[in-house]
Amino acid sequence: MPTDQRPLAIFLMGPTASGKTALACELSERFPLELISVDSALVYRGLDIGTAKPDAATLARYPHALIDIRDPAEPYSAADFRDDALVAMNAASTHGRVPLLVGGTGLYFRALQQGLSALPEAQPELRARIFAEAGELGWPALHARLRELDPLAAERIGANDAQRLQRALEVIELTGRTLSEQQHGAAVRFPWRVLKLALLPAERAPLHARIAQRFDAMIAAGLLDEVRALRARGDLHADLPAIRAVGYRQAWEHLDGSTDRPTFRDRGVFATRQLAKRQITWLRGEPGARVFDPDAAGDRSPRVLAIEALQMFLQTPI
Question: What are residue 194's phi and psi, to 5 degrees?
């Protein structure tokens, strides 16, 4: 049987606060890798503290493609990510290096490897009607409607994820078919041979503790001042995808006067935990992923196991 001649790529996936960035940076010290971010919030300039964006010193030593490539006023879709990621991956392979894609945005990983179906164009009138219903009934009520029509999509989409809820309901009305039915691209072979590594905690308690500690550290580092600066621009609003990112939505509401500071903190921690729960659910269904517990130690630590996996993957043709 002939060997697989496709270039190699690595997907390093995991929920928020699972240690993906630190592991990716360490792996890039040992192997000829190019790091590519797979994160729907890190694409935005000026969203630094609340996204746990690697600091300038880290990015200077370990450059990541697809960080700080959009203004917060601009939308960024899974299709945009796929186009940008393929360019970055091609550049890495051309330079004789292996692209390592690191992040927690499952939709982006899926769009990259499986492609995107040809979904209908948005209709402004329909979109306005759905948003009007949300204003009257609340997004959780529309999420309950989606759960009846498309349970698989409802499982992936949060009850207050206005953008994705709106799109899922819009697609059903426009086509008569669910988003889940249509979210599979054409069966085209992905042009890279991929090693998938997934950081999945065996126990939730350590992850929840890290989430709370990190959110408190973000507040101490000036998250609210960062959001004040974004508000002061005058061209941003609460319905933009960038501002709906976890932490930023809660901070925006607090600065609007909707919550006091302790409530803001608690809602931010809760929303981050919910994000992690959705990411874990998605990862458990991801085929072919090698799963590591981020809290394991010794010879079962993700660092040791990931190094072993990369050594075999990068040296052994299939």
Answer: -110, 135
Whether the predicted pLDDT of 120 surpasses 80: no
Burial pattern 289-312, b for ≥16 Cβ within 10 A else e, equals bebbbbbeeeeebbbebbbebbee
The structure tokens listed for 268 are 């931010």
Say whether pLDDT at 188 is over 80. no
- pLDDT over 60 (residue 164): yes
How do residues 27-66 score in pLDDT, each as one tens digit? Answer: 999 999 999 999 999 999 999 999 999 999 999 999 999 9
Least confident of 17-31, 67-81, 127-141: 127-141
- Rounded CA-CA distance 133/125 in Å is 12
The domains of the chain, with CATH numbers, are 8-116+185-315 (3.40.50.300), 124-182 (1.10.20.140)
pLDDT at 99 over 60: yes
